[in-house]
Amino acid sequence: MGGSAVVLGWGLGLALLLLLLVAAGSATLGQLGVGGQVVLASLRAVAQLAAVSWVIVFVARSLWLSSLFVLLMFSVGSWTSSRRLSRRGGGRAAWMPIAAGSAPVLAVVLACGAVPLTGIAIVPIAGIIIGGAMTVTSLAGRRALDELATRHGEYEAGLSLGLLERDAAMEICRPAATQALVPPLDQTRTVGLVTLPGAFVGVLLGSGNPVQAGAAQLLVLIGLLAAEVVAVLLTLEMVARGWIHRPPEKAAGRRWRLLAIPSRMGWPRRGSG
User: Fold this and answer.
1) Which residues, 6+ apart, have CB-to-CB distance to 219 below 8 Å?
2) Phi, psi of 251 (to 5 degrees)
3) How crowded is residue 256: how many other Cβ atoms within 10 Å of its Cβ?
4) What is the CA radius of gyration of the chain?
5) Do 243 and 93 form a contact (C-beta atoms < 8 A)?
6) Are 17 and 10 in contact (CB under 8 A)?
7) pLDDT tens, 192-247?
8) Which residues of 188-214 are buried (b: 16+ CB within 10 A; e: fewer)?
9) pTM greater than the 0.85 cutoff
10) Which of 94, 101, 140, 166 is a Cys-bridge partner for 232, taking CB atoms 3.0 to 4.6 Å apart?
11) CA 95 to CA 106: how far, in whole Å?
């Protein structure tokens, strides 16, 4: 069962252009404010995938070059999450949840021989796992920070009752941050019933049998869940301890202004000072 699910040619280019118009046009008509971002993200995807396709052919021949490429993916993922959490340095520690989620999963699948120690195998599995950890780190961190900002009065109430800063923050942001796990949980629950994910289809198109395809997809899905749960846990812990935080807003044309004396977490306490 060989071949490809996509036919290269003018039809592919036309389909991509029409789909881009649908996405950007819908965003613009709906006043979502992301029409330009849709176009830019799509153009970047085209350029990046074109370049990466050639690079992978080269780096996959060497285990060392493949390892460097994985390190590059991790660096880009960490930078992306840090910008999603804060553009002014409050999210610099975002690399830690991504590393904590991805490294053990990759170590397990390689040590157990579930994935061969070759560049052509390591690069795609590492990309999937790192990408999943990056996504939940960004989502969990943003949800936790937003919840703490919105419910800051409840956080202060917890402190007034004698809770430690970390414990008070956990009570507020844990339920919100956990929502980052809803998409991967739904994907795992419905695999084979609603969707046939990429790993499954890829093995089939690569002349593998359905049993091999199912095994590969299980490895990816459960590996992703493991990486994402660990990443969310550490992200939540770091937000609660103030290692990932949202710096105070900068007043237009003036120096940084705090409404009150900040706590150790970086969240101002009302009525202080």
Assistant:
1) 109, 114, 115, 199
2) -70, 140
3) 10
4) 22
5) yes
6) no
7) 776 665 655 555 555 556 677 677 778 888 999 999 999 999 999 999 988 888 76
8) eeebeeeeebebbebbbeeebeeeebb
9) no
10) 140
11) 16
Which one-letter DSSP state was computed for residue 261? -
Is 267 within 8 Å of 239 (Cβ atoms)?
A: no
- C-alpha to C-alpha distance for 239 and 170, rounded to whole angstroms: 9
Nearest to 227 by CA among 96, 114, 129, 112: 129
| In the chain, domain spans | 13-20+34-59, 62-273
Q: Closest Cα partner for 97 from 72, 133, 73?
A: 133
Are the C-beta atoms of 212 and 53 separated by less than 8 Å?
no
DSSP 3-state of 62 = coil
- DSSP summary character for residue 94: G
Measure the CA–CA gap between 85 and 145, rounded to whole angstroms. Answer: 8
Distance CA 241, CA 237 (A): 6
> Which residue stretches of the chain are H helix?
10-29, 35-59, 63-85, 95-111, 119-150, 152-160, 165-178, 182-190, 198-205, 210-240
pLDDT, tens digit (0-9, with 9 covering 90-100), for 63-86: 888 899 999 999 999 999 998 887
What the block records as the tokens of 60 is 């996959």
Count other C-beta atoms under 10 Å from residue 149's C-beta: 13
